[in-house]
Amino acid sequence: MLTKLETKSSRVKGLSFHSKRPWILASIYSGVIQLWDYRIGTLIDIFDEHDGPVRGVHFHNSQPLFVSGGDDYTIKVWNYKTRRCLFTLLGHLDYIRTVQFHNEYPWIVSAGDDQTVRIWNWQSRTCISLLTGHNHFVMCASFHPKEDLVISASLDQTIRVWDIGALRKKTVSPTEDILRLSEMDTDLFGGVDIVVKYVLEGHDRGVNWAAFHPSLPLIVSGADDRRIKLWRMNDTKAWEVDTLQGHANNVSCVMFHAKQDIIVSNSKDKSIRVWDVSKRICVQTSCREHDRFWVLTSHPEMNLLAAGHDSGMIVFKLERERPAFSVSGDSLYYVKGHFVCFYEFSTQKDNQVIPIRQPGSVNLNQGPRTLSYSPTENAVLICSDMDGGSYELYIVPKGSVGKGDSVQEVMRGNGGSAVFVARNRFAVLDKSNNQVLVKNLKNETLKKSSLPVLGDAIFYAGTGNLLCRAEDRVVIFDLQQRFVLGDLQTPFIRYVVWSNDMESVALLSKHAIIIASKKLVHQCTIHETIHVKSGGWDDNGVFIYTTLNHIKYCLPNGDNGIIRTLDVPLYITKVSHNIIYCLDRDGKNRLISLDATEYVFKLSLIKKRYDHAMSMIRGSKLCGQALIAYLQQKGFPEVALHLVNDERTRFNLAIESGNIQIAVASAKEIDEKDHWYRLGVEALRQGNASIVEYAYQKTKNFERLSFLYLITGNMEKLSKMLKIAEIKNDVMGQFHNALYLGDIHERVKILEDAGHLPLAYVTAAVHGLKEVANTLANKLGENVPSVPNGKVPSLLTPPAPILCSGDWPLLMVLKGIFEGELDGKGNLRQEEEDEASDADWVEDLDISDIDSMGDVVAEIENDEENEGNDEGGWELEDLELLPEGDTPKTTTNSHSSVFIAPTPGMPVTQVWIQKSSLAGEHASAGNFDTAMHLLSRQLGVKNFAPLKSIFIDLYMGSHSYLRAFALAPVIPLAIEKGLSESARPTVRSSPAIVYEFSQLDDKLRTAYKVTTDGKFVEALRLFLNILHIIPLIVVHSRREVDEVKELIIIAKEYVLALKMEVRRKETKDDVVRQQELAAYFTHCNLQTVHLRLSLMNAMTICYKAGNYITAANFARRYLETNPPNENQVRKARQVLQACDRNMRDATELNYDFRNPFVVCGATYVPIYRGQKDLSCPYCCSRFVPAVEGQLCAVCDLSVVGSDASGLLCSLTQMR
Q1: Do 394 and 506 sit in the same domain of this protein?
Q2: How far apart are CA 848 and CA 881, in angstroms?
Q3: Burial, 964: exposed, middle or buried (Cβ in 10 Å; 0-12, 13-18, 19+)?
């Protein structure tokens, strides 16, 4: 039995597969219905409207509906798209056991404990027929898949088959029945639409289940008499054929397999059994340890089964469906049914070659697992799981292709795996001795070689070489030299696919693909959430692989993508000339055309074959947002720029690639303030002052314009900005511009006009303008401010610009192939290309008449006085600084080769986190959000407050800062581990983590010492600090990982013990609770010295309280530790003697030292062995079930009972 999904919940009473989607419904005894995606193991939705257990559930085969019935006597019809109950059908008077939709008509059949079977029309929402006759609970009822029959099983020990043909005719032509009054009268009194066709009696106890065969006139039933009965029926009667015995308790459910001649049953004896219908024997049994089975269902189209039990459900297959095959050149040999078949790729001819032996065992899942082919000797080697692992060797005679009737003498042997390693040699794995036997075609052993690892399978790895699989690694082993050629740590590998030139290999595990070289040098790893099924290499060296529902590609650098979706799983045999050859589960060859445009283009970029990429761009074969995003991610925004027409996308790509010219053109088309601002920021980064000026003018950002003119030394335009501020009556703008210009007279004048006479006086006096200062002093009178004497004033003068006007000099960069070629495609506007290269970006500000604007101002002021201020003022917001004429263009400095500055590389911090799953490295990079997400997923952490200071320490410890000069910003530097001057600049190592594992050792020793000194609060703080640092620690070996996990347990035990001791000291009035806490303290896993101290403490407290039996126990435990302190030994012996004379306890404690227990970390009560408990996903502290969902009281980080994948603190855990 191959398990595909296993869930945990309350008892599952009903199951139903969706016919098309990978979904399964489970009705739960707790009253909810769960919808699962069994392909990826995800709970999709929960439906909760029933009041009480839900026993039956069923999907409609074509509509987005499902039906459910429960112990609340109701049937509910749901729409899973809208996620709500559409309506409720009422009529049953007791629990409803099963419900089912009809395949064709709008009917639902239901069975209930009211001893009836009812048929409902879900469109009219009425009960159209009531089937009575059973005199006990009806346990199940279902429609025949093809005929007009219903079967029901009851605890009255009978099975009834009902004929619903008349009901179907009434549904098809209801008007005819309406005209028949006599029939209408009979309908009023129960109806004659449905009659009992057969009543099957034979079970000695109540019948729990009965089901039709999907195509044959057979019925199978299971009952409380622990028997399964097989029945046959014809047009007139039904009779018992045979009885299957083997279950040890009541049979809960039984059914025919849709595609095989078998019966599947489950029972309260906690087993699922598979029976051969023809041989009437049990061929497979699968048992659970504690869970009884209740229900069984099968997928309507796929070879999948599901069973519900006391604590959830399982989805499973009975045997593998992957055909065994081997590819050799233009030929494919594969197993189909009872034959080895041959398929020629070039001619697409398919023929049977030779018949093969079928498994003689009565067990399932023992068909051919692998096939190996030797083309020179025309020999086929087939491996299976028969007899614990065996192989069969067939020599295919020449000329037998297409006949398939020649019976060959078969050579057999035992072995876990067998594969050809040379022309006439094959290797067989002997698992018991961990060695490989090399044999010839006569099945004679020629050589034995011990394997370098404990292998459980071998694969072909070139002539004379084997790829040996262990649990966590693979090695390539040279059989001749007995030497390991390569070694690679991997997940458990299922399949191995070599490239055509044998230079690369793909190692396929259940959820990952590892690409490596022929010497097993790791190249990349791809992770998939859905099962990986097969793969093949195409002509370009790209690996094409299939999952359950997709065909995907994997590039040499690890990039992957989807080629197309699949309706059914396929197994790739060969990829050639844009055609994928594959086998389906029925052994049929299929051809799928392959559109390789996307991944060939990406491959060209990776291999720097830009000419080929250019030809694909010219051919306009590329499109899609995913491709544009890929080009951005891989550092080719300039390429993506020429694949889009949307101006906003073009603007974003132009900004990212630094192409200011296209960014200006797009910004003009968009003409939004935000885009002009972003353009100004990018132009300022490149030092292109003219475009910065243009962008600021478009947004009328006068403050930024003034500052730009200041730093570029453009005093002429800065003085014009002063006049604009004066026109706008912007006093602060005037003052700033005057300050930038260094115009003292203007500053004094502005302050005077604004009414700030003291400031104006001080400014004039400090700068030596005596006449102006005297005039202002006269105006101030006695309020003249005093200027400090004896101090040299610091004058506010503008800094001298480093570079006066003009743009920054640009690097001389040759245009790449993309820029040179794509600029000729017409993507740039013609008017931009025709502009002179020496044209200025921005015309001068059109304020030549500002000098004469005073007259205009005076004139307007007079008009305002005369007209009573009817107008709205100057309306200076509409002042146009530039004529809307020609679009400006970048300055090229008269050099056609001058180009944009190179795009900055990826920040070091981004490199750190790109492929890291270590929370400590993410925190060091400053990505606190992703670090918290990782901790939440790995350890269930919810409370991050205790980790805040540690996050900050990690970030500050892995960064440094350099000052260049006064006007430049501080330069941040990321500090890497093991950085050396000889290392290549493109190779980045991991961040330098300030917390080392050795520091935790020092903290632990300090905490031990403080605990010994009795400073429990300080010791508790130290142990908690250790627990808080560990989630963010990074170590470098498996041994250190084990030590970290051991340290978690140590710190957890001490935190729990110390918290109980602190609580005990706070509990002064409750003597009983003090004794209990002291007793629990002694059951924490402590150092021997601390255990002795805790035992002495508990012994003393219990002895004083009169609990002599308990005190004696502590005294004995203390003496068993061989303590060195003679005084304490003497004291313990005296207590033991005194207690032995008076063996009683004055008070009853919640403490039983004879029964093993752990202490709840929240309530501090014992959880004895066998009682239910929960644990913290991080520190593994144990808690009573009532604490579920609360914060762990020990580590103060994680949520009790939450799901978590486990601590990741080393890269070795991810290999």
Answers
A1: no
A2: 11
A3: exposed
Distance CA 1050, CA 1061 (A): 17
**CA angle in degrees (0–180, nearest 5) for 687-689-690:** 135
Please say whether the beta carbons of 602 and 586 come within 8 A.
no
The domain in which residue 473 lies consists of 364-399+408-489
**How many domains is the chain partitioned into structurally?**
4
Question: Residue 16 domain-assigned?
Answer: yes
Dump the DSSP string for 194-244. Answer: -EEEEEEE--SS-EEEEEE-SSSSEEEEEETTSEEEEEEE-SS-EEEEEEE
CATH number of the CATH domain containing 647: 1.25.40.470
Beta carbons within 8 Å of 436's beta carbon, 6+ residues apart: 427, 428, 429, 430, 448, 449, 451, 458, 466, 477, 479
So what's the pLDDT on residue 635? Answer: 67
Residue of 501, 482, 573, 480 lying closest to 533 (CA atoms) = 573
H-helix segments, 983-1067? 997-1012, 1016-1029, 1038-1066
**Inside any domain, residue 681:** yes
Paired strand residues for 1183: 1174
Q: How far is CA 731 from CA 708, 723, 863, in A?
A: 19, 11, 24
Alpha-carbon distance 1009 to 1152, whole Å? 31
pLDDT at 33 over 90: yes
Distance CA 1124, CA 523 (A): 59
The model's pTM: 0.57
The answer to whether residue 310 scores a pLDDT higher than 70 is: yes
Instruction: Report whether 1185 contacts 1173 (CB < 8 A).
Output: yes
Q: For every residue of 1114-1156, which 3-state class applies, written as one string?
A: HHHHHHHCCCCCHHHHHHHHHHHHHHHHCCCECCCCCCCCCCC
Is residue 379 situated within a structural domain?
Answer: yes
Q: Are 538 and 472 within one domain? A: no
Amino acid at site 289: E
Q: How far apart are CA 446 and CA 443, in angstroms?
A: 9
Confidence of residue 178 (pLDDT cuts 50, 70, 90): very low
Strands 207-212 and 195-201: unpaired
In the chain, % helix, strand, coil (3-state, to 5) comes to 30, 30, 40
485 and 503 together in one domain: no
- Give the model's confidence band at 890: pLDDT under 50 very low, under 70 low, under 90 confident, else very high: very low
CATH number where 456 lies: 2.130.10.10
Q: Which of 666, 691, 716 is the C-terminal boundary of a domain? A: 691
Residues 485 and 500 in one domain: no
Indicate if 564 and 521 belong to the same structural domain. yes
CA distance 1098 to 789: 79
DSSP-based three-state secondary structure for 601? helix
**For residue 1194, is it within any domain?**
no
Residue 1196, token pair as written in the block: 């103060």
Which 3 state secondary structure label does DSSP give 943?
A: coil
Q: With contact defined as beta carbons under 8 Å apart, do 988 and 912 qualify?
A: yes
**The residue type at 740:** Y
Within this chain, do residues 570 and 666 fall inside the same structural domain, yes or no?
A: no
> Tokens for 1008?
């031990």
Nearest-angstrom CA–CA distance, 725 and 328: 84
Question: Residue for token digits 């129960």?
Answer: 190
CA distance 784 to 762: 9
B/e letters for 912-935, b = 16+ CB within 10 Å, e = fewer, are bbeebbbbbbbbbbbbbebbbebb
Kindly state the tokens that stand for 293: 């089975």
1194-to-109, 1060, 1064, 1122 alpha-carbon distances in Å: 54, 11, 16, 31
Closest by Cα among 231, 223, 279 to 247 = 223
**pLDDT tens digits for 1059-1103?**
999 999 888 888 899 999 999 999 999 999 999 999 999 999 999
